[in-house]
Amino acid sequence: MIAKRIIPCLDVKNGEVVKGINFVSLRKMGDPVEMAEFYSHNGADELVFLDITATNEHRKTVIDIVSKTAEKVFIPFTVGGGVRTIDDVTELLSAGADKVAINSAATENPIIIKDASLRFGSQCIVVAIDAKRTADGIWHVMTHGGKKDTGIDAVEWAKKVEGLGAGEILLTSVDCDGVKNGFDIPLINAIVSSVSIPVIASGGCGHPQHFLDLFEHTQVSAGLAASIFHEETFSINQVKQLCEKNGVNIRNDRFF
């Protein structure tokens, strides 16, 4: 069985790490390079860096910060935000990213997933899906920082991106984001059961127990969180210790 991963996320705006609730009410958390280096040395299995306003501001990801961050981390490093073309993917991989996450552009031009996976390998291509529950009980794909409802069924979209060659899905619950009441288990199970590629679950973690619940009640490959780590409420090692104590196969090569 493949070991579960614990992944901190750096949502970056104007060169600073920020965090909000339901994708709004953002507050500053710190310097992305310094925070990335800290996580790299303190138990993170991977790191996700998202330039969260790049798409709405019609610009590319801040390459200089990505490059500086990549120099400081020694774990797999995924970068997303404002990725629209193959050239954008090339630029981020050249700047030091190990994987590139595509979100809004993929819904508008799905062929970019296929083209990117064929050129760079599916292991480099992550499709980020921000999903929000609708009144009729299904989940729609949200883009542009959670502001635009595409009307696309999130489960069907997950199946499609897998077929196009995505190597991994980064799934965020817009409803649970920043709320700290736990991961959106029904959403996660709906997506995980529909695909065979790894899924990283994001949105709602407020306590190490939420990671344990995630791994015990879903077949997700990894859990991602921001607030509890950024605010130093809990450490990554505390999460890993709880999971290991309860029988979860968790990555622990260096930190126990």
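[next item in queue]
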Amino acid sequence: MRPSGRQIDQMRSVTIELDATRHAEGSCMIKCGDTHVLCTATVDERVPPFLKNSGLGWVTAEYGMLPRATHTRMRREAKNGQSGRTQEIQRLIGRSLRAGVDRVALGERQIVVDCDVIQADGGTRCASITGGWVALKLAVNKLMKAGEISSDPLTDPVAAISCGIYAGQEVLDLDYPEDSDAGVDGNFIMNGSKLVEVQMSAEGSTFTRAQMDKLLDLAEKGIGELNAIQMDAVS
């Protein structure tokens, strides 16, 4: 039995609220159970120096957690420097979102996706990628409506989900009690039906090829459900 009482292939409830902030070109609040992340997308007509005059666009991301997003207060990283974990996560978000972007169609501009964790209960990087794509899509829609770009540079939606082995059982969408006690923990990022990245590690026990296949099957199911929620939100 999972601590939450969910079935092994059951995700937490997921909601996406659009236009969560007033000024960003695209924004949403994604809630995956008790994990809540504010995602905003900002259009910048400049690109990084290495892309100047290339005709290619760029998508990047920043990630952070509020001091009381977790059980105990954390110091603000702006005052103390970003941790290695934060840097790794925001690079993951950026490259995951870029996997679903036609950078020629985007044109020579940059979109910055900010993911700020309001409340954490496991899976913050996955929620950030899933919500970040929605914010990115809303910003792209504004560019298209304004005639700044002629075709949609976004291909299939990008989403992410965690899977792991908890109490000897393969389960979908780990919350914090499961994540902190999982024998195996994995994050799966997909662009539609195609894999973008898989992060898996043994956390006290090893796993077999058959178990990995079961986790991948669970991830495909979960991401299919997330894609449906994303498309419903932006349609």
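[queue empty]
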